[in-house]
């Protein structure tokens, strides 16, 4: 049986109307999990890849989404100059870095990033559109 977290990577992300709400918990089979709560009004991700526990699933070359709440244990990216793929400022957000909750959330009207990686325990909302997609499934080598 596979265990672990689902991980997402993307070469670039352009997002609008992002709000960072801080730390919260989500219920899991193993008990409450501390996560960072982000609300994303709209985003486009290129070279999207989803690594699931026990194997790798490549879902799309482009992912467009809107009106989602993302709950993640880690969010890492290089903040880019808007409209370019020039990632300048490395950023890592985790639940431990922020207060339990922020009174109104921190709005980020425009967010451009490269080299995006985040764990994805929960995503709520949508729609989510896949463009130029294919599904490739691989399994790790068996344990000795």
How does this structure look, described?
- The protein has one domain.
- It is globular.
- Strands 1, 2, 3, 4, 5, 6, 7, 8, 9, 10 and 11 form an eleven-stranded antiparallel beta sheet that branches.
- The model has no long low-confidence stretch (mean pLDDT 81).
- 21% of the residues are buried.
- It is built from no helices and eleven strands.
- The two termini are 15 Å apart.
- A hairpin with a 6-residue loop joins strand 1 and strand 2 (33-46).
- Helix content is 0%, strand content 63%.
- The protein has 144 residues and is mainly β.
**Radius of gyration from CA coordinates:** 15 Å
Distance between the ends: 15 Å
> What is the succession of H and E elements?
EEEEEEEEEEE
How would you describe the shape?
globular
Strand content: over 45%
Q: What fraction, in percent, of the residue positions are helical?
A: under 10%
Query: Overall pLDDT, averaged?
Result: 81
Instruction: List the uncertain runs.
Output: none
Structural class: mainly beta
DSSP summary: helix tally: 0
Query: Quick one: how many beta strands?
Result: 11
Structural domain count: 1
What summary fits the major beta sheet?
A: 11 strands, antiparallel
């Amino acid at each position: 049986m596979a265990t672990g977290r689902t991980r997402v990577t993307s070469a670039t992300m352009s997002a609008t109307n992002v709000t960072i709400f801080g730390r919260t918990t989500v219920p899991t089979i193993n008990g409450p999990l501390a996560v960072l709560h982000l609300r994303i009004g709209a985003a486009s991700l290129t070279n999207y890849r989803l690594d699931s526990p026990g194997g790798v699933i490549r879902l799309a070359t482009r992912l467009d989404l809107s009106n989602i709440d993302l709950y993640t244990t880690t969010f890492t990216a290089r903040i880019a100059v808007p409209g370019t793929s020039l990632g300048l400022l490395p950023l890592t957000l985790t639940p431990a870095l922020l207060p339990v909750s922020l009174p109104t959330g921190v709005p980020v009207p425009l967010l451009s990033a490269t080299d995006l990686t985040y764990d994805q325990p929960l995503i709520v909302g949508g729609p989510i559109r896949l463009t130029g997609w294919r599904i490739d499934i691989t399994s790790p080598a068996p344990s000795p």
